[in-house]
Specification:
With 248 residues, the protein is α/β, with parallel strands linked by helices. Helices cover 33% and strands 24% of the residues. Strands 1, 2, 3, 4, 5, 6, 7 and 8 form an 8-stranded mixed β-sheet that branches.
């Protein structure tokens, strides 16, 4: 059964999740020969789909969360639908590119491989990526982030989160490999935006369910002591990409 861990915080996800860098898409697209059809699998609020829509005639975007899709960004050439990664109604030999952004660790890899191979054109590209825990130039803030991630919410992460911590080095990805490289998200956040991003974590929602209180409150005194309300801080997220080609 696919896991839906993000419907409850779909608003926070749509508002605060970081945007992927243009250089990431430029690199992925350099391997894609035709740009007629793309499938953004486990699209969430459509962050990757909206960027792909600038390059493809049509983008199919699927997710198991209807709440996420309801808040997804709209473009005329994106078609959203609720569907699992492992089984869709798409015809065979349809897609030039298939992407899974920040979600591959939640899906059944073997079943997805079968479905991607069925629905992709020969020699189509499959790209999966994740971003890991963010860092700043302020070591005090980095310690707060690590404490919140590992000590406070750590026990409330789903077991699959370990694959993100490993930078996708331990996931099964059986597509014919293409050369990859790492990227980075860089953005500036206010304190409220930072806390908004934390509220989109599935571990935060699980903590609230189990304890009846928001764990972000536990770090607010430390944040207030070192971060003025009007200041913005630069955050960096490392991105780990895997690329493969469909062989039929």
């Amino acid at each position: 059964m696919p896991k839906d861990l993000f419907s409850e915080q779909s608003q926070a996800y749509a508002t605060y999740r970081p945007v992927y860098p243009q250089k990431l898409f430029d690199y992925i697209l350099s391997f894609v020969e035709q740009k007629k059809m793309a499938w953004d699998c486990a699209t969430g609020n459509g962050q990757a789909a909206t960027m792909l829509a600038d390059y493809f005639e049509k983008v199919e975007a699927t997710d198991i969360s209807a709440a996420q899709i309801e808040r997804a960004a709209q473009k005329n050439n994106i078609h959203y639908q609720v569907a699992p990664a492992e089984h869709t109604s798409f015809p065979e030999n349809t897609f030039d590119l298939i992407t899974v952004a920040q979600a591959y660790h939640w899906i059944d890899w073997r079943a997805f491989y079968t479905e991607a191979t069925r629905t992709a054109k020969p020699d189509a590209v499959v790209a999966i990526w994740c971003y890991n825990l963010m860092t700043t130039d302020d070591e005090k803030l980095n310690k707060i982030i690590k404490h919140f991630y590992f000590d406070i919410t750590g026990p409330h992460w789903d077991a699959a989160r370990k694959f993100v911590d490993d930078g996708y080095k331990t996931v099964t990805f059986d597509f014919s490999p293409l050369p990859s490289k790492d990227f980075e998200i860089s953005l500036n956040w206010s304190k409220e935006a930072f806390k908004g991003y934390l509220s989109s974590w599935s571990s935060v929602r699980e903590y609230i369910r189990e304890n009846g209180s928001n764990p972000i409150h536990l770090i607010e005194p430390d944040l207030d002591a070192m971060w003025n309300d009007n200041d913005v801080i630069n955050f960096r997220f490392p991105i780990f990409l895997k690329l493969g080609r469909i062989v039929k």
